[in-house]
Amino acid sequence: MEQEREKVLKEAREEIASLVILTTTKVLQKDLSDDEKSRFSKSAIDSLKLSN
Amino acid sequence: MPASSKHKTLAKSLLGLSLDEHGHIVESKVKEILSSLKDSKISGLRSLLRYFYTEVRLHEYTYHAIAEIGCKDDPSITNSIIQKLEASVGKNIRLTITENPKIISGCRIRLKDDVYEDTVSNRLHKLEKSFH
Question: Is the pTM of this model over 0.90?
Fold first, then answer.
């Protein structure tokens, strides 16, 4: 019984997490301005560590 | 020497003739070589062309980077990527850069077998995986 409850809770957590990520993705795709995208992209490039 | 070895050696020489001062392949030089080969009576031309094609592909693979970015390209981004890559590999790099809205923001760079990535989509993907 307890195991079944844990399993259901775990599945629910994963489902909620996936929905949150999906929603976040859609919001960011829609709402980030060109300037914000550009700033993050430049910062990402600057901080990339390239191996030799 | 077997014909295949001769063709391999010749293909390497032809590759050498196809390069500019930075060691990059020059399309017009390749076309010129192909045109000359077409007119020649060389035996096993198909085999030679196959080796030459392989040499060109392998060589281009060593200096041609593909970058996807999550914003519109501008010269400062292109220059930053080229500078970082050249500092890392110690030679001139050719860069193809494209805007990919799917990564939301950030960049993904591929050079040879390496992929360097810091994108919003990848961060979200890692976050999602951490819940599982």
Answer: no
Number of domains composing chain A: 1
- List the 8-47 stretch of A: residues with Cβ below 8 A of B: 13-14, 17-18, 21, 24-25, 28-29, 32, 34, 36-38, 40-42, 44-47
Q: How many CA within 13 A on the CB side of residue B15?
A: 21
How many beta-carbon pairs under 8 angstroms link A with B? 79
Write the CA distances from B19 to B15, B24, B26, B33, integer angstroms. Answer: 7, 5, 6, 12
- The range of the structural domain enclosing residue A41 comes to 2-47
Q: Give B119's Cβ-side CA count (13 Å radius).
A: 23
Is A52 inside a domain boundary? no
Q: Which of A12-16, B9-13, B108-112, B120-124 has the lowest mean pLDDT?
A: A12-16
- Can you tell me the distance from the alpha carbon of A19 to that of A24, in angstroms, rounded to the nearest whole number? 8
